[in-house]
Design a protein that fits this description.
Blueprint (H helix, E strand, L loop, with lengths): L36 H15 L4 E7 L5 H14 L3 E6 L11 H14 L1 H6 L25 H22 L2 E6 L6 H12 L7 E8 L9 H9 L4 E5 L5 H12 L5 H11 L3 H8 L13 H10 L3 H11 L4 E3 H8 L3 H13 L3 E4 L2 E4 L2 H9 L3 H17 L9 H11 L3 H17 L3 H14 L6 H5 L3 H15 L2 H14 L6 H17 L5 H11 L6 H14 L3 H18 L2 H14 L12 H16 L2 H17 L3 H17 L7 H14 L3 H14 L5 H17 L3 H15 L6 H19 L1 H14 L7 H14 L5 H21 L27 H18 L2 H17 L3 H18 L2 H13 L30 H11 L4 H8 L3 H15 L4 H10 L10
Parallel strand pairs: 1-4, 1-5, 2-3, 3-4
Antiparallel strand pairs: 6-8, 7-8
Helix pairs in contact: 8-9, 8-10, 9-10, 11-15, 12-14, 12-15, 16-17, 17-18, 18-19, 19-21, 21-22, 22-23, 23-24, 24-25, 25-26, 25-27, 26-27, 27-28, 27-29, 28-29, 29-30, 29-31, 30-31, 31-32, 31-33, 32-33, 33-34, 33-35, 34-35, 35-36, 35-37, 37-38, 38-39, 39-40, 40-41, 40-42, 41-42, 43-45, 43-46, 44-45
The structure holds adenosine-5'-diphosphate and magnesium ion.
């Protein structure tokens, strides 16, 4: 395709007869391009860089009529003669109905026309056009079904693949015109192409848009902003012409020098906008005698000079958007070919309209808009109805695949509720086939909007309102519109009775839960649990399996998760559904690993993954295969099997590539390949994989991207490039800001931030970075796989800087030991703790096996702070040390340390710390004397304890407080450093003394007596 191809996308239509040709146009335009040297140079430089193999894209902005299209077409002519191929697609203004992928459909259609379908097919992976047939129905049966997100990813890849093939023969310039009207699907595809431009050399992308129409919430704004961040994207702004160039333009249009007062008036009136210069000079080459008030009137003026029947046809054409097919115009106007041509000729000669593809376009959109706005209200509606009826009677009047959306647009503009509803419903189905989820959603929203105005809507479309709501919910899912999705699913649920429609209800609940989860809401589990109650295995086993597997991934209660996945596995086996069985096995494998998220080769979890893989292979279930690879590589890496992990990831990426999904699912695998390569010290390879994955797709998802950046950053820093590291840190932090918390994403970044701060600004900054990380993340609660490196980094690095840093180091080391102690409580695979510990993580004697080294560690930290004379951290360390002493059953030791800590906290006015000290003292039955000596014993029935008159000992009172707070014996035991058995003895004694039969009654009595209200401290 060349510069002469048109944006109107009409080439797929039946051949027009008796059409006017471009040569017939009159000349109210300049034959040469005036000015614009700078902008032309920018385009040419971009083209030169593309010829040298680099990626390049130009975003060309300017107000309407300023000359964007003209500049691009002059540029296209130059590069075409230099051997380049120019592909042009324009975005269309179809009111609010986006025509999905409009500019790309135009480009592809032209290509198919020029080269034939077979040649296009040969450029596609798999050599089939079934994917592209989603956009071009003339290519035959499109692919249908399958996961829409995957289908869309494939479609994008196919477009990229076509471009890649074309660039092998000559440089290619892809021009997307008027992007301010781009539908969401086109915006997404454009982003994808520009983001992936590095994957192909020899492609220049030029995008034009009206910069003056981008109001604050215009959807193109965020797109431009994100494209601006790409190194090879350049913005070019096209300003109005200067006074000098305006004069030059007048000379070129008139073919002679205008009188000087005319030139002045021209500049004054047009303000240097070439479209207005042309219009002002009008057909007879003179400035219009009476100057109209507004620019819109000025544009209309050129139309009003035309014969009435010409104006009539122009009014009709104005209702059809940028370009109107000749035959369609004939059908709507009721004129035969000859009469139509006769009526149009004056408009073409006056350069109001010009021939374009198989139809006519207004010389400029602003003229069309002015004519259309000038229609009377009744006329407006009638015209749109006529278009809709004509297309309905003969869909070949518009290009293939476009009838439905055109009719939806015209009936809607005609305000005919019934037909608008029907047409929107049909167009939504078409948008679904074209994997244009956003457009499908907006069309379905229109159906719902019109529903109440059309009494027999359900009969007319053969679907009830609930069904439409369900469809819209699924479109919201595919379009990523989660808030809308929640609202739609909720409306649908209100209309359904779970007793009669359990499966539909369960599916909607499943959807709603998914939306909530994606929005980061915590309450997404309820819907799933409810859904489960509606679909017992005998109602719909398949739905049940689906819900069970989702539940298994998200509930916080480990015990339940396991039963969910086990049930799913059994059901999937009964159903003979190997795909879901494989999914269940993969989930089960993750449960069978320990908190370190690791599995040795040959271990049970890896066996399960291997089984799942074999099944998925038999099924051809690509998505399950990818998931298997992701889980396997993650677990191997966790076990320190770097070589195996890297190799498994490499193999899986190679197969993801073959399936064209490398830019989507493949990016997680790239993370899992980079991580082991980095650990192995194969840094160049690691960088190559990471950068390659980031280049491939503009958005491998912010989270994966951030992880890749962190690995790259670690390497950059280790190699001494602070500035580059700082940039990756910033980018990664930005990307993770709104991500749901997961330690595997956040903690490696935190560690890098600490290291960078240390390198760049010294220990104080590193400590500050570390404390930020500790404040934000629970370093002892998560997986040691990610938490420990952070803690250790600091502990290791800070020793070298002097006594203050050493104190910190020891504090961290102690915290590290503390974390180890907590981790010892994680159940092992057989349900018990690590060797030598009981199931509750305490030592064999119930006193805490790790407590001795922990105490020593905290004592060292204490000494370090003491020698620095820093009372606050000293008191904190003492508190921790006392806790460690208590855990060993050493109450004397604890008392001694707390007695030192308490006055320090008090002296500082550090009340929260003082309170913590007091609470620990109470738990340990330690009395803190105001003057310094602490006693480790508290007499039974101490009246200070507040329960003396009930005959309760201080200890029993403490136990009662916890009973009243709803704690179990085990929890009480843990909190008071006693065994569960002792706790249960205390509880029976308390029940006896209070004369009550149950814990509940005891709690009620305690509350009634206001025993703990406010908490009385010993
Ligand atoms: N630099 C120029 N030299 C000559 N004619 C121009 C120039 N810029 C614009 N024009 C003419 O002005 C009219 C409007 O320009 P166009 O490129 O369609 O505007 P835009 O695409 O920015 O809305 C066209 O007829 C075009 O030929
Ligand atoms: Mg234009």
């Amino acid at each position: 395709m060349t510069a002469s191809s048109f944006a109107g996308d009409l080439s797929g239509m039946s051949d027009p007869h008796g059409m006017l040709t471009p040569e017939m146009s009159g000349r109210a335009s300049s034959p040469v391009l005036v000015g614009r040297d700078e902008q032309m140079a920018a385009l040419e430089a971009a083209f030169a860089s593309v010829r040298q193999g680099g990626p390049s894209a130009v975003l060309l902005g300017g107000e309407a009529g300023v000359g964007k299209s003209r500049l691009v077409s002059e540029f296209s002519r130059t590069v075409t003669s230099a051997g380049a191929r120019v592909l042009t697609g324009g975005c269309l203004e179809l009111g609010t109905d986006g025509l999905p992928f409009a500019p790309f459909t135009a480009v592809l259609r032209d290509l198919v026309h020029e080269m034939g379908a077979d040649a296009v097919a040969s450029m596609l992976p798999g050599r089939t056009t079934r994917g592209l047939a989603r956009l071009l129905p003339e290519l035959g049966e499109p692919d249908t079904g399958g996961d829409p997100a995957e289908a869309r990813a494939r479609l994008f890849e196919e477009v990229l693949s076509v471009l890649e093939h074309l660039t092998r023969h000559s440089p290619v310039v892809l021009v997307i015109e008027d992007a301010h009207w781009a539908d969401r699907s086109s915006r997404d595809l454009l982003t994808f192409l520009i983001g992936n431009q590095r994957a192909l050399s020899g492609l220049l992308i030029v995008v034009t848009f009206r910069s003056d129409e981008l109001h604050r919430t215009h959807p193109l704004r965020p797109l431009l902003a994100s494209l601006d961040r790409i190194a090879w994207v350049e913005r070019v702004e096209l300003p109005r012409l200067t006074r000098h160039d305006t004069g030059e333009l007048a000379i070129r249009i008139l073919g002679r020098q205008p009188a000087s007062d005319l030139a002045d008036a021209l500049y004054h009136r047009s303000e240097g906008n070439p479209l207005f210069v042309e219009t002002l000079l009008c057909c007879d080459g003179e400035l219009s005698p009476e100057l109209p008030e507004s620019l819109r009137d000025l544009l209309l003026d050129s139309v009003r000079r035309l014969p009435e029947d010409t104006q009539e046809v122009l009014r009709i054409a104005s209702a059809e958007g940028e370009t109107t097919g000749h035959a369609l115009l004939g059908a709507v106007s009721g004129l035969d070919d000859a009469a139509l041509t006769r009526a149009l000729r004056p408009a073409v000669i006056a350069n109001v309209l010009h021939a374009k593809g198989g139809g006519y376009a207004f010389r400029h959109e602003l003229i069309r808009e002015a004519v259309h706005e000038d229609l009377l209200p009744g006329e407006h509606g009638r015209l749109h109805s006529r278009f809709a009826e004509a297309i309905d009677a003969d869909p070949t009047l518009v290009p293939p695949g476009r009838a439905a959306i055109e009719m939806a647009h015209h009936w809607h503009s005609a305000h005919d509720a019934a037909w608008a509803l029907i047409a929107a419903w049909q167009a939504a189905a078409q948008a679904g086939r074209a994997v244009a989820a956003a457009e499908r959603l907006s069309l379905l929203a229109r159906v719902l909007e019109l529903w109440d105005q059309v009494p027999d809507a359900a009969e007319r479309i053969g679907a009830d309102q609930t069904h439409v709501l369900e469809e819209a919910t699924s479109a919201a899912h595919d379009a990523g519109e989660f808030e809308r999705g929640i609202a739609l699913a909720t409306s649908a649920l209100k209309k359904l009775d779970p007793a009669t429609e359990p499966v539909r209800v369960a599916k909607l609940l499943g959807n709603r839960s998914h939306f909530r989860m994606r929005l980061g809401r915590k309450d997404f589990g309820h819907d799933l649990e409810e859904a489960l109650t509606y679909v017992p295995a005998d109602v719909s086993p398949a739905t049940r399996v689906e819900i069970l597997l989702t539940l298994a991934h998200c509930t916080p209660k480990v015990a339940n998760e396991r039963t969910y996945v086990e049930e799913a596995l059994t059901l999937a086996r009964q159903l003979g559904d190997e795909g879901q069985e494989a999914n269940a096995l993969l989930t089960l494998a993750m449960f069978d690993t320990d908190p370190g998220q690791q599995a040795e080769p040959g271990s049970a979890p890896l066996e399960l993954i291997a089984q799942a893989r074999a099944m998925a292979e038999r099924q051809g279930a690509d998505d399950v295969l990818l998931k298997a690879a992701v889980n396997e590589t993650h677990l191997l890496e966790g076990a320190g099997e770097h070589e195996l992990a890297a190799e498994a990831a490499r193999r899986a990426i190679a197969s993801a590539d073959a399936q064209l999904l490398s830019r989507t699912s493949g990016s997680l695998l790239a993370v899992n390949q980079t991580e082991p390569l980095w650990a192995l010290g194969r840094w160049d390879e690691a960088l190559k994989v990471a950068n390659g994955a980031m280049d491939l797709y503009l958005a491998p998802g912010p989270v994966y991207r951030a992880m890749l950046q962190v690995f790259a950053g670690c390497i950059l820093l280790a190699r001494g490039d602070q500035a580059a590291t700082a940039q990756t840190v910033l980018a990664a932090r930005d990307a993770l800001r709104s991500a749901l918390y997961e330690d595997q994403h956040q903690l490696p970044l935190a560690r890098l931030e600490v290291l960078l701060a240390l390198d760049k600004e010294g220990p104080a900054a590193a400590i500050a970075a570390m404390s930020r990380a500790m404040e934000r993340f629970d370093l002892s609660g998560g997986s040691p796989r990610y938490a420990w490196p952070v803690v250790r980094t600091v502990a290791e690095k800070l020793g070298a800087f002097g006594p203050a840093q050493r104190a910190f180091q020891l504090t961290f080391a102690a915290a590290d030991a503390h974390a180890a102690h907590l981790l010892a409580a994680f159940p092992g695979p057989d349900g018990t703790g690590p060797e030598g510990t009981g199931p509750d993580g305490t030592g064999p004697d119930g006193t805490g096996g790790e407590a001795a080294p922990l105490l020593a560690a905290w004592d060292q930290a204490t000494a370090a702070w003491a020698s620095l004379s820093e009372p606050h951290p000293l008191a904190q360390a003492l508190l921790h040390a006392a806790e460690a002493a208590l855990a060993r059953g050493d109450r004397e030791g604890a008392a001694m340390r707390l007695q030192r800590a308490a006055p320090l906290a008090a002296g500082l006015g550090a009340h929260p710390l003082g309170e913590q000290i007091a609470i620990l003292a109470r738990r340990g039955r330690i009395r803190l004397a105001p003057h310094g000596d602490a006693s480790a014993d508290q007499p039974p029935g101490d009246p200070d304890a507040g329960g003396g008159e009930l005959g309760l000992t201080g200890r029993e009172l403490e136990v009662l407080r916890l009973v009243a707070a709803g704690r179990s014996n085990r929890e009480i035991a843990a909190e008071l450093f006693i065994s569960p058995k002792t706790a249960s003895v205390h509880v029976s004694n308390i029940l006896g003394k209070l004369g009550v039969a149950s814990r509940g009654e005891a709690a009620a009595k305690a509350h009634a007596l206001r025993l703990f209200d406010p908490i009385s401290t010993a």
